Amino acid sequence: MNNMKYINIYGKKRNIGKKAVRSIRFSGEVPCVLYGKNINIPFSTALESFKNLIHTTLNWVNIQIEGERTNINAIQKEIQLDPISERILHADFCKIEDNKPITLEIPVKTFGMPIGVSRGGEYYSPIRKLKVKALPSYFPEYIKLDISRLNIGEKITVKDISKKEYTILHPINTLIARVKHSRTTTTTTNSSKSSQDEKKD
C-alpha cells in the first residue's frame, strides 16, 4: 500500500490573465493550477509552501483551497522556474484518482556494499531515478536496491527489479547498477597471467 508522505498546501482561488498573475507574484505568492477529471482550479499559494517540494523527492500533496468543501490529494506535475533567479513562477498539480494509474519518476535507493568492490572492482550506477506507473495505492516512495551481492562482472537491470505492483517504464535491459573491473584489478589479473605463462616457459 501507499506509504507516501503528503505535504499540505493551503491556497485560495485566483483570477486568470497576465495582470492577475503579475499581481500574485508581486504579493509573494505563486500562481498554480489544480487539474484532473472534471476539475480545473486556478489558485495561488504562499511561496513558503514549496520549501518542502523543491528540496525533496516528494511529489504528493494535500491541497486545501479556500471555498472548497474537501481537501484534494494531488501530485506535483511541473514547477516553472525563472531561468536567471530560479524563483518559482508557476506550478501545476494533478488530482489523484484512486482507480487511475499515474506516472512519476521516483528515486532508486541502494543498500549494502557490493562484494565485488571489496575484491577490487569498481561500482557503477548510471541511473538515479526511474519512471514508474502504478495505481496510487501501490505507488512506492522509492525503489530499494540491494547491491551487496553484486560481484565483479555482475549487473542489475530493470528486469531484475520488476514487480507486479507497478510497471517500470524503461526497457528491461536498462542498466541500473554493476560492478566492473577496475584498472587495478585488470592490471593485477594481466600480471598474474603473465607470471603463470613465464613459469610454463
Describe the structure.
- The chain folds into 2 domains: 7-95, Ribosomal Protein L25, Chain P, CATH 2.40.240; 102-187, Beta Complex (RNA Polymerase Alpha Subunit, Chain A, domain 2), CATH 2.170.120.20.
- 19% of the residues lie in helices and 41% in strands.
- It has 5 helices and 13 strands.
- With 201 residues, the chain is an alpha+beta fold.
- Residues 188-195 have low confidence and may be disordered.
- The protein has helices at 18-26, 51-54, 115-118, 158-161, 183-200, and strands at 7-13, 29-36, 39-46, 60-66, 72-81, 88-95, 102-111, 122-124, 129-134, 143-146, 155-157, 167-168, 175-180.
- The strands form 3 sheets. It has a 6-stranded mixed barrel with strand order 1-3-2-6-5-4. Strands 10-7-9-12 form a 4-stranded mixed β-sheet, with no helix packed on it.
- A hairpin with a 5-residue loop joins strand 4 (60-66) and strand 5.
Which architecture name of the largest domain does CATH use?
Beta Barrel
Overall spatial form: elongated
Report the top-level CATH class of the largest domain: Mainly Beta
Report the helical percentage.
Answer: 10-25%
CATH topology of the largest domain: Ribosomal Protein L25, Chain P
Order of helices and strands: EHEEHEEEEHEEEEHEEH
The side-by-side strand order for the widest beta sheet comes to 1-3-2-6-5-4
Low-confidence runs:
188-195
Counting DSSP E segments of at least 2 residues, the number of strands comes to 13
Radius of gyration (CA) equals: 24 Å
* Mean of residue pLDDT values: 84
